[in-house]
Amino acid sequence: MDAPAKALPGLETARPDGAPRRRSGRRLAEIALPAAGVVIGMALILGPFGATVIRSVLYWDANGPALSLQNFAGLFADPRFYQAAGNTILCGIGATLVSCVLGLSLAWVVSRTDMPGRRWFEIFNLVPFFLSPYVGAISWVYLAAPHSGILSKLLADVFGLPPDIIPIYGIGGATFVLSLFYTPYVYLFVIAPMRQMDPALEDAARVHGAGFWTTLRLVTIPLLLPALLSAALIVLVTSAGLFDVPLALASPRGIRTMPTEIFQLVQYPSDLGRAASFGVVVMTVTVLFTVLQRRYIDRRRFETVTGKGYRPRTIALRPGGRAAALALEIVYIGCGVVLPVIALLMVSFSSIWTGTLSYATLTLRNFEYVSFNYSLTQQAILNSLFLAVVGATLAVAMSVLQAYYVNRGAARRRALIDAVLSLPLGIPGIILGLGFLILAIRTPLYSTLAIILIAYIARFFPFATRTVSAMLLAINPELEQSARASGATWLQTMRYVLMPLLMPAIVAAWLMLFVIFIRELGATILLYAQGTETISVALVVLSERSSGYVAALAVIQLLLLLMAFSLFRATRASLIQA
Amino acid sequence: MAFVRIKDLRKRFGDLVAVDGVSFEVEEGHTLALLGPSGCGKTTILRCLAGLETGDAGTIEISGSAVFDHAAGVNLMPEQRGLGIVFQSYAVWPHMTVAENVGFPLKVRRIAKAEIAARTGRILDMVGLAAAKDKPATALSGGQQQRVALARALVHEPRLVLFDEPMSNLDAQLRARMRMELAVLQEQLGFTAIYVTHDQAEAFSLAETVAVMNHGRIESIGDPRSVFARPQTPFVAEFLGLNINRGRVVNCMPRDDADGFYVEVALSADFRMWGVLRGEKAPSPGTSVLACTRKEHIAVAKRAGAAPRPDVAGPPDAQMFDGVTRAASFLGLEEEYLIAIDGVELGAIQPPRGLHAGEPITVTVRTEDCIVFVGDSPGAKG
Asked: Kindly report the CA angle at A200 between A197 and A202, in degrees rounded to 5?
């Protein structure tokens, strides 16, 4: 591909003939490749968006399809829509509030105090970010289900409390589990500005007479507010759209939420028009939030952080404060990681699950069955690995081209392109899945792994683009320019200079997408067919049969995710807020 | 024949005209320095030469062939121009060793490994970095990274090397040494150089030709001595650090033995100074002018008595004024004074005289050392 750089004319050698022709060929790669990444990305977003919008205004009556607002009229006349919307808003707001308080406290405790073990907690606090919310939700069922839950039994046996004391099913339980998984988002958003904040800003407040709490209230938190608000908006939109948790914790009690309601609308007898109109409502709200975030919040973010590497003063806690900080960390890591993992292991090693681990029922049969004897789970593991590896690779390749286009290409319409390419960040997976379902339903792509792959890439490539973009922004363009001036073609410059420099971001983005794809459920649940099940789909299918199989498969998924997490730590690439 | 020839180069960024019709030529083996304040367009010209920026009009010829010709649609890519470039940021690749950095131009030219190693070793020897060959480039100090960038720009023996403020991040001593070494390297390798800087000492010491730029245009171009000794425009005078004082023409008489006129300029009610105005046209009394004097040419001494008033009309050889020091700062071999003559402030740089602020002094200025321009603001365009 990379032709040797023939140096010019007259400088080292005589001028070769026909230089302009070769030039146009070279320029083609430089211009066409990044543009192709952008065009494909746009198509991946606008395709399902357009399909959903068009389908929402098509209504079939006796004469065939016609343009009509009938779907919306039906949706808005249906009390279930309002129940679902209300419950979803409740879940979203609840999860956002809890995550913000938790995320901010954990970030502060880890970055600004002398709490013992804070180096370790700094890492542990990120683990829930890598786990599957669906598995988290079913583990919490094992822990807290009325009568059979491990904790429920423990509380009943030891303290004599009623066996249904923990309300894990319902909006409260869903909000609780969502909060556990979205806390790391807030944590990641606020910990960077917390670290980079000029300590003089706080010192000045102290010297001029403000106490510790007054400084926190009047200086520290206001400075963090833009980052916190950004995180809050993202958590609000994404947690409300997540299908996994309501499926496990709200549906069993017949409580409707937006994602589970859309799932129901697609099931037989399906009403795709109604589902599409619901989707349009959700997309409109999400896009409004995204615009709001870009307009008013992102803009203020750079005012607080100077970008210099400050070393903020760590605060020496009093013994009481230390104990409180440590307790907070232990409760969070306990609820988010340790307890669910223990529950999964206990269930997965038991032949019959009755709520307690007993020696008599210990077995490896569950693992044996899902790994070797059951074609559904075997296929699901292979499918998930294929989707994760191929999907992450394709999405990262595309994201590098897009990041290059947005940061290095011609300046025209860059902001608009960037905005469109970031759209999927807030769109729930199930909505994008619905869009691809509508697009593919009468094509050969329907019920193939390919359509799931495409949906994964479309839904999640912006995470990779943001990660790579952030790194590209920090690379001085003169590094590439001096390669070009040294005689390297564009492709050689990419290969020898830019790619190696971007490698940390590329690896980080790849691992992040690998993790996301291994656990994805919202989009997959609408697009899978027999033979294209993934691990998450198999978990849902199996949950109606045996908790032992579910737990064993969940442990296998967990191992894959933890492997990616430790690789992620090993590359030492910083997580970019996405 | 000129080796580099730029004709009527223009480049704008949105509403900003960065390069406004610039033309110049550089002889083979010579150095041209583009000198000017930041934002004057000098770096844009360099980037157009390298192919990193595309001009909006004009032509650039290197070694007799067009690398850029807007009208003919010719625009060679940077890698096709076969140049070397040293950036202000050095742009040393942090993921490569010193030898990998320096060998890069050879590697992309598909040169055999053994030859790359040999040539890289040779050039690293020349810049004094042979010992650091296998170190990661980021382990080096700023000055050493600068040498890596230099070696990389020279290793493929380009006949034109571009320098974009290469020494502005070095301390003064290192800068002086690098200037000398660069001159030696150029002597040995014989490349043509175009050198962008805002440091006049650097420009004057390195270049055969200096072009002073302002607002995207060349204000003055010529050999360093003439550019320095005889500023062509008020802007150049100000940029070179001369005193600029506004005044009005009182008297004017043609010079007998040279072109231009002697003019007497009223700088304040009681302070008139003679200077030289070049040009064909005599200014009428009352014309706004700028009187420019080099600080080193303002001689000061403790006042012994009142300055003699010339009793003949016409320009004296040397003029004497009564003044007072406002501030003094000791610079080592020299001392800089801020002085006032009838309320008009001037800077003076003289061997230390031990004067203090507020001391009465006698100021001597040779008439030939005061350059007068018609106009009322040095930064004005055109």
From this structure: 75
Which residues in A lie closer than 8 A to residue B65 (C-beta atoms)? Answer: 8-10, 15
Torsion of CA A377, A379, A381, A384, to 10 degrees: -130
- Contact check, Cβ <8 Å, B108/A487: yes
Question: Distance between CA atoms of A444 and A448, rounded to whole angstroms?
Answer: 8
Verify whether the Cβ–Cβ distance A7 to B107 is below 8 Å: no
Average pLDDT, chain B: 90
Considering CB atoms only, which of A10, A20, A496 is closest to B62?
A10
Q: Looking at the complex, does the CB of residue B303 fall below 8 Å from at least one CB of chain A?
A: no
- Which residues of chain B does A4 touch, with a Cβ-Cβ cutoff of 8 Å? 108-110
Q: Name the band, by pLDDT with cuts 50, 70 and 90, for residue A14.
A: very low
Q: Supply the ipTM of this predicted assembly.
A: 0.78
pLDDT higher than 90, residue A149: no
Count CB neighbours of A416 within 10 A. 9
For residue A537, the SS3 value is helix
Q: Closest Cα to residue A473, out of A312, A302, A304?
A: A302
d(CA A89, CA A94) in angstroms, rounded, equals: 8
Burial of residue B379 (CB within 10 Å: 0-12, 13-18, 19+) is exposed
Residue A211's pLDDT is 74
Residue with more model confidence, A104 or B354 = A104
Cβ <8 Å between B95 and A476:
no
The reply to whether B157 touches chain A by the CB within 8 Å rule is yes
B54 interface with A at CB cutoff 8 Å: no
DSSP string, A460-493: HHHHHHHHHHHHHHTS-HHHHHHHHHTT--HHHH
Residue B83 with chain A: CB contacts under 8 Å: 11, 485
Q: Find the residue in A nearest to B63 (Cα).
A: A10
Q: What share of chain A is helix, strand, coil (3-state, %, to 5)?
A: 75, 0, 25
Instruction: Note the pLDDT of residue A256.
Output: 93
Q: What letter would DSSP give residue A355?
A: S
Per-residue pLDDT tens for A236-267? 988 999 999 999 999 999 999 999 999 999 98
Average pLDDT of B6-10?
96
Do residues A137 and A543 lie in contact, with contact meaning Cβ atoms separated by under 8 Å?
no
Q: Average pLDDT, whole number, for chain A?
A: 86
Contact between chains at B79 and A484 (C-beta distance less than 8 A): yes
Min distance A463 CA to chain B CA atoms (Å): 25
Distance from CA of A25 to the nearest CA of B (A): 11
Relative to beta strand B192-197, strand B318-330 is: unpaired
- Give the 3-state DSSP-derived string for A21-87, with helices as H, strands as E and coil as C: HHHHHHHHHHHHHHHHHHHHHHHHHHHHHHHHHHHHCEEEECCEEEECCHHHHHHHHCHHHHHHHHH
**Contact (CB<8Å) B77/A486:** no
Write out residues 60-119 of B within 8 Å (CB-CB) of A: 62-65, 67, 73-85, 87, 89, 91, 93-95, 104-105, 107-110
Nearest to B28 by CA among B7, B1, B47, B64: B1
| pLDDT tens digits, B265-315 | 999 988 999 999 988 888 889 999 999 999 999 999 988 877 666 666 678
Q: Which pair of structure tokens corresponds to residue A348? A: 């997965």
Cβ–Cβ of A11/B63 closer than 8 Å? yes
